[in-house]
Amino acid sequence: MCDDTSWSNCHVDIWFVISRYLSPEDTLNFALICKKTFFVTNSETYWNGLFDRFIRSKYKWLDKPTTSNGSCIRDETIRELFKMYPKFMNRKRDPDSYDKAVGKICISIKHSLNEKFMDQSYVFKVKSKSKAISKLAQLNRDEGCQLLVIRSKQFVPFPYESDNLTVKYVSKNLSRGFRAYKLKIQFCDHFGNSAGETLVFDPIISVQLYDWWEPEYKAYITSGSY
């Protein structure tokens, strides 16, 4: 048994046993205990266990997540948890989460027109700058990616060269007349210098930022609207 001074010297098998009693929301804190717990939370055994305990135990008709298309058990389990695990499903969305796109690299921009409502949709795919990640995370092509989705009544032309620009600034303010909001996005190059590209959406209907594990993110990716 481990005492307070030797807990980090516990055999990894002990940490695997302890991990069987964790809830999904405990994953981060558990991973930060030591290198061995980090190893545990980045194993397929750990994620298979979470899937069986918190998803498959309630939805027995569900098959184990597939690992096709470069995906892995970790990614699919996280996605399923955000669709079916109550504590994740019921999290309140931050209406101002769009500012979390600041500092991320813009990979691509796509535009579509909703002819029924005559509004424009702009989807910016942004990604965190490269950093050390686990081997399982490296298998996820969407790791660190987010979609910034903007709906507006106004058509806004794309930047001439949008790829690999960094989002420098995002702000939402009242439009002239105080009846709606406008959104401004400013880009810079990878050195932090202004790239001379600023987009202003005025007025906007809505703006949302989706992380790669959210159902809405996958819906946009699957439909090709990203």
TrEMBL record:
PANTHER family, alphabetized: TRANSMEMBRANE PROTEIN 183A-RELATED
| Keyword Transmembrane attached | yes
Which residue positions does the secretion signal occupy? none
List cellular component terms (GO): membrane; SCF ubiquitin ligase complex
User: Under which name does UniProt file this protein?
Assistant: CLUMA_CG007964, isoform A
Annotated organism of origin: Clunio marinus
Where is it localised?
Membrane
Membrane keyword on record: yes
What membrane topology does the annotation report for this chain?
Single-pass membrane protein
Q: Which domain of life is it from?
A: Eukaryota
Classification of source organism: Eukaryota, Metazoa, Ecdysozoa, Arthropoda, Hexapoda
GO BP, one annotated term? regulation of protein stability
Family to which the UniProt record says this protein belongs: Belongs to the TMEM183 family.
Which key words tag this protein in UniProt? Membrane, Transmembrane, Transmembrane helix
Q: Which InterPro entries match?
A: F-box-like_dom_sf (IPR036047), TMEM183 (IPR026509)
